[in-house]
TrEMBL record:
<keyword id="KW-0479">Metal-binding</keyword>
<keyword id="KW-0808">Transferase</keyword>
<dbReference type="InterPro" id="IPR001126">
    <property type="entry name" value="UmuC"/>
</dbReference>
<dbReference type="GO" id="GO:0003684">
    <property type="term" value="F:damaged DNA binding"/>
</dbReference>
<dbReference type="GO" id="GO:0005829">
    <property type="term" value="C:cytosol"/>
</dbReference>
<dbReference type="GO" id="GO:0009432">
    <property type="term" value="P:SOS response"/>
</dbReference>
<keyword id="KW-0460">Magnesium</keyword>
<dbReference type="InterPro" id="IPR022880">
    <property type="entry name" value="DNApol_IV"/>
</dbReference>
<feature type="binding site">
    <location>
        <position position="108"/>
    </location>
    <ligand>
        <name>Mg(2+)</name>
    </ligand>
</feature>
<keyword id="KW-0515">Mutator protein</keyword>
<protein>
    <recommendedName>
        <fullName>DNA polymerase IV</fullName>
        <ecNumber>2.7.7.7</ecNumber>
    </recommendedName>
</protein>
<keyword id="KW-0234">DNA repair</keyword>
<dbReference type="GO" id="GO:0006261">
    <property type="term" value="P:DNA-templated DNA replication"/>
</dbReference>
<dbReference type="Pfam" id="PF11798">
    <property type="entry name" value="IMS_HHH"/>
</dbReference>
<keyword id="KW-0238">DNA-binding</keyword>
<feature type="active site">
    <location>
        <position position="109"/>
    </location>
</feature>
<dbReference type="Pfam" id="PF00817">
    <property type="entry name" value="IMS"/>
</dbReference>
């Protein structure tokens, strides 16, 4: 299915094993070795894994004890988020030399709309290559890129030649490329949704394309239109510059389970201060406070409350969080993690003529 004239030129740039690659760059002794960024011990979690570790099945968000079972020679280093943020800022500076239309997704990936570039490159493919070359030259790191006519396909494309690769999905390729993929490979379809689709006999993009919209609406509600479109290689979402942040939060996994109210209150004090510091740094506050409680059997509960007035300060946030947490005590099991999030955010008082670009060439 060919997109009509005037389609966008989108690049999705994704750094390769970003945190782990920064650590290997900065410490030559770690290069070529299976590496995990994260905490060691019974409560530790892998934040990122090098490609050497991934070959053993080590993945981000995996408990460190599981990762060590899979790879006994795995090396752990603590995260250095200040360094990762500084490197990310340099990478985003590179993006800004090519387009003002940048949508960061995290420290290590972003969408760029290069339909009307700032520099006279012949194609989006050439821009993606130039960006990857500059990232390597200026940071010593590698990135993968996907180029296509919409965000959904650009993200699929960036995964296709990882690491240190690049792939283009043209308008003529889009629908057929999607048809051959398992639905669990689709960005926006998580494990739970994929399982529901499997139960309905939907296992590939082609299966999804063959479903009437009415059936998708019945089973997937407001997400049905998105699924109906991507099954046909269609995604009308624009690159959202300065996309508003939806929430600010923090959480803590405990070395030992907590059972008593004083220990929980101490954690709430610490978490409230951390969350409020992050709000203050962004000149934000919010009207909704949510807590997350995860027990030692990995069951979790989430409780939230929206007030008429926004959070005033760290003390106010602490009071609201403790009020939400109090009904959870005494807990039915030991608590391994607590989290606090503020949402319903709001601000605190306190060139040459554009030319259209070829998609590839």
């Amino acid at each position: 299915m060919t997109q009509p004239p005037g389609y966008r030129r989108i690049i999705h740039v994704d750094m390769d094993a970003f945190y782990a690659s920064v650590e290997q760059r900065d410490d030559p002794a770690l290069r070529g070795r299976p590496l995990a960024v994260g905490g060691v011990g019974r409560r530790g979690v892998v934040a990122a894994a090098s490609y050497e570790a991934r070959r053993f099945g080590v993945r981000s968000a995996m408990p460190s004890v599981t990762a060590l079972r899979k790879c006994p020679d795995l090396l752990f280093v603590p995260p250095r988020f200040d360094v990762y943020r500084a490197v990310s800022a340099r990478i985003h500076d590179i993006f800004s030399r090519f387009t003002p239309l940048i949508q960061p997704l995290s420290l290590d990936e972003a969408y760029l709309d290069v339909t009307h570039p700032l520099q006279p490159y012949p194609s989006a493919t050439a821009i993606a290559q130039a960006i990857r070359d500059l990232i390597r030259e200026e940071t010593g790191l590698t990135a993968s890129a996907g180029v296509s006519y919409n965000k959904f396909l650009a993200k699929l494309a960036s995964d296709y030649r990882k690491p240190d690769g690049q792939f283009v999905i043209t308008p003529r390729m889009g629908a057929d490329f999607v048809a051959a993929l398992p639905v669990e490979k689709f960005h926006g379809i998580g494990p739970a949704t994929a399982a529901r689709m499997h139960a309905l006999g939907i296992r590939t993009g082609l299966d999804l394309r063959q479903q009437p919209l009415s059936r998708l609406l019945r089973h997937f509600g407001k997400a049905a239109d998105f699924y109906y479109g991507i099954a046909r290689g269609i995604d009308e979402r624009p690159v959202e510059v300065n996309r508003p942040r939806r929430s600010v939060g923090a959480e803590k996994t405990f070395e030992a389970d907590i059972h008593d109210w004083p220990a929980a209150c101490n954690s709430v004090v610490d978490l409230s201060a951390r969350v409020w510091d992050r709000c203050t740094a962004r000149s934000l506050t919010g009207v909704t406070v949510t807590i997350k409680v995860k027990y030692n059997d990995f069951r979790q509960i989430v409780r939230g409350r929206t007030a008429a007035e926004p959070v005033r300060d760290a003390g106010d946030l602490m009071d609201r969080a403790q009020a939400l947490l109090a009904p959870c005590f005494p807990p039915p099991r030991g608590i391994r993690l607590l989290g606090i999030t503020v949402s319903g955010l709001r601000a605190r008082d306190t060139q040459p003529a554009p030319r259209q670009l070829a998609l590839f060439g």
